[in-house]
Each structure stands twice: as C-alpha cells, then as structure tokens.
Amino acid sequence: MTDVLVIGAGPAGAVAALRAADLGARTTLVTSAGFGGMAANDGPVPVRTLAYAAKLFREAPQLDQYGIAVGEPRLDYSRLLERVRAVLGDVVTHSSLREQIDSARVTVYEEAGNASFVDPHTVITESGLRLHAEKIIICTGGVGRRDLRPGFELTSTHSSALALTEVPPSMLVVGGGATAVQVASIFSAFGSQVHLFERGPRILSTEDADVASAITAAFRKAGMIVRENFGDIDSFEKTSTGVRMNFRKDGERDCAEAALVVMATGWVADTAKLNLSAAGVMSDDRGFVKVDPFLRTSASNISAAGDVTGQLMLVPHAIQQGFLAASNAVLGPTTRLDEGVNTSAGFTDPEYASAGLTEAKARETHDVVISIVHFDSTIRTIIDGRKVGFCKLIVDRKTAKILGCHVVGERAVEIAQVAAIAISAEMRVDDLGRVPLAFPTYTGNLAYAAAAAGRQLDLQVGWAGEVASRY
C-alpha cells in the first residue's frame, strides 16, 4: 500500500507529493489531465502569456517616442496561440518541480481521468487505476461555476475564451474578479469591443477601493464599457451575430449583445465526481472540502489543500497548503495553517497588486496613516513613459508598522511583493525608508511611499528615505 496518495497535480498537489516523498513516505501522484493542473494548463501560465502579448501590442506605438521607427502593429492570433502552446510545453517540460518529484521517486500517473473514492483508503480512476493508500491528500482544485439559466450553454468560460481561434469583434465579460478583468483587459487590447458586467457595486471587490477605482477608470479610458450594479441575468439567446444576454434591474428589462459572452462569475470546487461520501469527507454547498486548521477533512486519514478547500484561491497559498497538508499527513497534525500576508495581483492594463490589509479592513482595528505616491511624479515611471498608477502604503500610527501596500501601474506585482516581505518581517516604515534601494527603479517607489509615511509620523527615515523623498 502507498503511504500517501495525492490527487491532483496543480501547485498544491505537486508540492504535497514532493514534501511527502522528502519526508520518506512512499508517495503516488495521480492527475486527471497533465502535470501542472489549472495553473500551468488553464490559468496563470496561458493568461500571463496572452497578457504579455497584449502588453507588447499596446506598447508598440510608444516606440516612436524614443526615435524607433516601426510599422503599424498587426496581431496574428493564430501565431500567438502557437506561442502560448509552446510556453505551456516549455513550462511543463522544464519544470524544476517535476524534476524534483521524479528524482524523489514519486509514482506519477498522468491523464488518468477523474478519480473517485471507493472507501477512505481506495480511489479508482476513469483510466482503470485502482489505488490504495494509508493517507490521501485531495488537491483537485476548482472549476468555473455553471449556471441553470436558460441559454447558459451559449456562453463561454475563460478557458474557452483563451482557446479561441480568432479575436471576436465584441465580447461581454460577466464578473468582476481577477479572472474576469484579465480576460476583459487582454481582449480589449487585441481589439475587441468589451463590455464588463459586474453585479456588485464595483469590480475587484476584494481589492482596496482605490485599486478598483483606478482599474475601472483605466478600462473606461481605453474604451471598455464597465457596468456595475447591472442587475440579475434572466437568460441568454442566440442571435445572428452572437449571443444576447437578457437582464433586469428594479423591474426594468434590458439586454446586451456580443459575438461572445464569457462567464467568470465564480469558482467552485472540482469535487463533483470524487464521490466524497464514500470516504466520509464532508463538503459545503459549493463542493469545497471542509478542513480543520491542520488541513484534515472529516475523514481522519484524508487531507485537502489548494483551491478545493475554498480558502484563498491563489497559487502561493495553494503551495503553502500543499506543503503543510503533506507535512501533517506524514508527521502527524503538528502545524496549523498560518495564512500570513495575503497577496494578489492582476496582469491587466494597468497591472495591479496588493499585499496585506486593504484600507477599509485596516481601519476596522487600527488607527492608520495613508501614504500615496503617484507614478506621474517618480523618476523611473517618467523615464519609461509609464506614469499611470500609484503606490499606496497603509501604516499603523501607533507602531509605524506597515499593514498593507496596494499598487496600480507598471511593475505593480514586483513592488507589492517587496512590500509583502516587509509586512511579513513586521518592518516599520522608517526601517524600510533606510534601505538603500537602487535608483531609479520601480521598487524605489516603495521607499518614496515609506518616506512620506515616515514624515507624517515625524520619524527619522534616514538617508535613503530622505533621498527617496526628494527625487
């Protein structure tokens, strides 16, 4: 019998399998499709590849400002898809994690089809495998939420949108989360007339309000139509040129039509075919597996990690959970899950990224100081002609510790990740202000914001901070 069986080979599953093997457990990893899961095959990797192409496409007209003469850019979408497939292949082939898993002698079954429980220790797959294990870790991830509204079958998911053979002339994107705004931004850059529909009061509802406002303004300036509080969808119907979405608000009926409708309204656990009841594993009404702080399920020998738990559904957190679930499965329940600093990012135009608390959340329990540095006043952004955006720091007034950082604009992700390190280390803004970051850089904007916050708190930020505050 295998010591540990991991179901799913996305970030959580791959790390869980490697960790279990490193701890000396005989480990088997089984996945319904290819290695890498949604992150490599259907999520961040293809999305980031298309987002990078969109970035290049948008930036081409800027070359003339720097004396570089080029012709009018033209998108060959079929060649772009070839590049996406090449990137996916390269990522899977050269994944250092896969190499480590193989060297750790993990038994890997790919393309095994859906797995389902026979009992708490036995799993069968559609390909005919019958696998037994002392401990099992569920890492099957999530899938886009399906809908029962009439005509829903006429809509597309983000996956099918990314697999199009050509750019549609128009697109309705329903949803305001990270996936929805990235799809909307990419295809807007490629020339689609995009309408973004969000049922709530604003897109990116989990982000800082200033981030959501800035992204919304940028989208509208780029020609995208953004509709918040649009109401409730009644149905979808086919038209001669695409799909019509019928909706209503306050009793008033309305409709919108496009060549393609992309539904990105939520994420549910990919557990429908797992037959969890046969293993005694409890889940909620969206299929998410219920876990305790040690990531154990209601079945004593079964754990879960990653998106399937319904917690923070981001790759870094899936990796953390996979490592922890495997550690506790092999060594016993010794370590509780510590969410640490929440980080998020979106490769839209402009980019956005966050680390730590939003301003609204921080104000619930702290007296805060807010420092905002706008990109139209910083050296590197001016040099690069990337003056849209800002870096915002949220600081506790009493301790001067950084509670949150929110960035919109070029290299937003890199700036926020440095802030995440500072927050994790419980740095004060004057400590951060003393770090002599290279000049001129995007990350240097973090020092600008730290210096500005330090001045509000009457702190001595040191030489680096003083330089940052003056340039």
Please give a structural write-up.
It is a single chain. By secondary structure, the chain is an alpha/beta fold. It is built from 15 helices and 21 strands. The chain has helices at about 10-20, 35-40, 45-60, 75-95, 95-105, 160, 180-190, 210-220, 315-330, 360-365, 380-385, 410-425, 430-435, 445-455, 460-470; strands spanning about 1-5, 25-30, 105-110, 115-120, 120-125, 130-140, 140-145, 170-175, 195-200, 225-230, 230-240, 245-250, 250-260, 260-265, 265-270, 300-305, 345, 350-355, 370-375, 390-395, 400-410. Helix 1 (about 10-20) links the parallel strand 1 (about 1-5) and strand 2 (about 25-30). Helix 1 (about 10-20) runs parallel beside helix 5, helix 3 (about 45-60) crosses helix 4 and helix 3 (about 45-60) runs parallel beside helix 7.
Highlighted features:
single chain, 471 residues, alpha/beta, 5-stranded antiparallel β-sheet, 15 helices, 33% helix
Write a brief structural summary.
The chain is of the alpha/beta class and 471 residues long.
Cα-to-Cα separation, first versus last residue: 64 Å
Number of strands: 21
The outline comes out as globular
Percentage beta strand: 15-25%
Low-pLDDT parts are none
Instruction: Round the mean pLDDT to the nearest integer and report it.
Output: 90
Gyration radius, in Å: 24 Å
Number of helices: 15
For the largest beta-sheet, the strand count, sense and barrel status come to: 7 strands, mixed
The percent of residues in helical segments reads 25-40%
- Alpha-beta classification: alpha/beta
